[in-house]
Design brief:
Layout lengths: L1 H4 L6 H19 L2 H8 L6 H19 L7 H23 L1 H9 L12 H4 L6 H34 L3 H29 L13 H32 L6 H4 L2
């Protein structure tokens, strides 16, 4: 465990991120675009998507077995519950359970694209209850993501500049998330802007699409890894029975 709480353990996160990006680009350079797209994004059945799921699922038991916060029992139970909810919501999003649940409850509602968009909520043709379902999902997801961030933002911000390992793992969790979301819409943006030829942006075999897909889906795998890493590091450093004094104050 010294590796996770040592003075230089903050470098673990950037090293993992660097290895991940290099691996994705290497795959893009060496694998046929059509094969690469299928390997990274295949409606939840690709190799990378299958690898991502158990890592996200690992968050749920880890939040209880390796409580990432110190303090009273109530505080530990509260944050273990929050991190478990975060892991569950990540699985829901990865597996599109929210979309499946919506389709099961309201099979008669047809909407171009996903219903989990603002234009669905503002559409005058959609009944109130389906909109309430979507709003409730957004609230629950936002609660799971924002609660620990609001509680610990100041400490994480200070910890980043103090080279605190947990702060750096959380930072790269966020970087991976932003990177993944950015790549999610880049193909459509490039099509509208005519930045590349249609062949390069083909949904099933375009080289540019393959690169964006690899980084998007790979970024989600990195997010799962950083979440697990941050929980373990926080437990090792802040657990009352095994305190790592050099990192306790941030």
């Amino acid at each position: 465990m010294n590796l996770l709480s040592s003075k230089n353990s903050w470098v673990i996160a950037p090293i993992i991120f660097f290895i991940g990006i290099v691996s994705f680009v290497f795959c893009w350079l060496t694998i046929d675009p059509r094969t690469l797209i299928i390997s990274f994004d295949n409606d939840g059945h690709s190799l990378v998507e299958i690898l991502t799921l158990p890592v996200f699922a690992m968050i749920i038991p880890l939040a209880w077995l390796c409580c990432p916060v110190s303090g009273s029992m109530k505080k530990k139970i509260f944050f273990s519950s929050i991190f478990s909810l975060l892991g569950f919501m990540a699985l829901v999003r990865q597996l599109d359970w929210h979309k499946q649940w919506f389709s099961m409850i309201w099979p008669e509602i047809t909407f171009k694209g996903t219903v989990f968009k603002m234009r669905f909520l503002t559409s005058p043709d959609i009944p109130f209850m389906p909109k309430l379902f979507v709003i409730a999902f957004f609230i629950l997801f936002g609660f799971a993501v924002l609660t620990p961030l609001v509680f610990y933002f100041k400490k994480l911000f200070k910890g980043f500049f103090k080279m605190h390992p947990v702060a750096w793992s959380v930072a790269f969790f966020g970087i991976s998330g932003v990177m993944s979301q950015a790549c999610d819409g880049l193909t459509k943006t490039c099509r509208k802007a005519n930045l590349f030829t249609p062949e390069l942006l083909d949904a099933s075999s375009g080289a540019v699409t393959a690169l964006f897909t690899a980084i998007e889906e790979g970024g989600e795998l990195l997010m799962a890894i950083f979440a697990v890493l941050a929980i373990i590091q926080s437990h090792v450093i802040f657990a009352p029975d095994t305190p790592a004094e050099k990192h306790k104050e941030i």
